[in-house]
Amino acid sequence: MSIATWSKKHYPTPAAKVKKADAPKHDLRKWEGLSLPILKEHGLFRIGSSIEDAEGIWLDINASSCALCLNYYDRSTPAEPCHTCPLAIARGGVSCCDARPDEAYSPYNRWGERWNPRPMIRWLKKAAKVKA
């Protein structure tokens, strides 16, 4: 098992090749594959915010592997670069990297600091219903 076997099921298309309309579902599929049992099933482990296999092949779990970021991040509005992202819209205008007032950690930081993909999964399910 490896990044290749994991990718085949959970990340079959690189985020940079995903169309805007397909981005929420693509990212949801990736995040659903980041649970500890699934990572173990594929022989993967975490190094920081990345996942890696025994051969040293890794995938960064950040904006570079996020179809939403690659399709919606707006550099022309530095104060609110995620304002058109379905995930931020589903979160009431708050990006996945920022905590809402009712959260101790942002969904993305739950992954980075606590290795917990569930908050991102919950919000991505809501983002998939947003018409952006």
What features would you describe in this structure?
The structure is a single chain. This protein has 132 residues and is mainly alpha-helical. The chain has one domain (3-127). It is 40% helix and 7% strand. The protein has a three-stranded antiparallel β-sheet with strand order 1-2-3, with no helix packed on it. α2 runs antiparallel to α7 and α6 runs antiparallel to α7 (118-127). The longest helix has 10 residues, at 23-32. The chain is globular. It starts with a helix and ends in a 5-residue tail after the last helix.
In short:
This protein has 132 residues and is mostly helical.
What topology does this entry show?
Blueprint: H1 3-10, H2 23-32, H3 36-41, E1 45-47, E2 50-52, E3 58-60, H4 67-72, H5 86-90, H6 107-114, H7 118-127
Antiparallel strand pairs: 1-2, 2-3
Helix pairs in contact: 2-7, 6-7
Summary keywords:
mainly alpha, globular
The radius of gyration over CA amounts to 14 Å
Spatially, the strands of the biggest sheet line up as: 1-2-3
What is the oligomer described by this structure?
A: single chain
What's the overall average pLDDT, rounded?
95
Percent of residues in helices: 40-55%
> Number of DSSP strands?
3
Distance between the termini: 37 Å
Alpha plus pi helix count: 7
Portion of residues in beta strands equals 5-15%
* Whole-number count of domains: 1
Can you tell me the overall shape?
globular
Q: State the major sheet.
A: 3 strands, antiparallel
Order of helices and strands: HHHEEEHHHH
Low-confidence stretches: none
